[in-house]
Write a structure and sequence with these properties.
The chain has one domain: Lysozyme-like, CATH 3.40.80. By secondary structure, it is of the alpha/beta class. A hairpin with a 2-residue loop joins strand 7 and strand 8. The chain is built from four helices and eleven strands. The structure holds zinc ion. Zinc ion binds next to loops.
Length: 169
């Protein structure tokens, strides 16, 4: 894992103990370095905690205890401002509705999911941007080709005390 700083973050209003979800995204591009540069640019006003490239490389850009800017206007389980209480993971893919994710990416995501569940037993939901973005239909990532079963199995193999909802909510 590599650390490349993004200036686009702020403290979580509820602090680190408020981390209760993980949100998956596709980047909308095949160019991982381009996404990383965009998140490094203070003018973009966007970021994610992690970027997972096609070759499995994980880049950590915002401390998970802080609030990254990935979900926009959003709601999960009746609670708005999903960025406040989520960890955002951007997966490099032009569009997960027609472009498959790589095996290397799934392996990185499985590892990352387990690592985060062990670090934050407070996590109750792992879902996609498409499921939390408002208004409904505004976003379609990570898309129909994303295999939630891979993440579900990884999650249930992590902390035995944690059984998050995985996939659509
Ligand atoms: Zn997204």
């Amino acid at each position: 894992m590599e650390w490349i700083f993004s200036p686009n973050f702020e403290p979580r209003p509820g602090g680190p103990s408020d981390v209760t979800s993980i949100i998956f995204h596709h980047t909308g591009s095949d160019n991982g370095d381009g996404t990383i540069s965009w998140f490094q640019n203070p003018n973009s006003r966007v970021s994610a905690h992690y970027v997972v490239d096609r070759d499995a490389q994980i880049t950590n850009m915002v401390d998970t205890n802080d609030r990254a800017w990935h979900a926009g206007i959003s709601e999960l389980n009746g609670r708005s401002n999903v960025n406040d209480f989520s960890i955002g993971i951007e997966i490099v893919n032009p569009d997960g509705n027609w472009s498959p994710y790589t095996e290397a990416q799934y392996q990185s995501l499985e590892w990352l999911t387990q690592d985060l569940l062990n670090k934050y037993p407070s996590i109750t939901h792992i879902t996609g941007h498409e499921d939390v973005a408002l208004p409904k239909g505004r976003k379609s990532d990570p898309g129909d080709l994303f295999d939630w079963n891979r993440i579900r199995e990884a999650a249930y193999g992590a902390n035995p005390n944690v059984f998050p909802v995985v996939g659509a909510v």
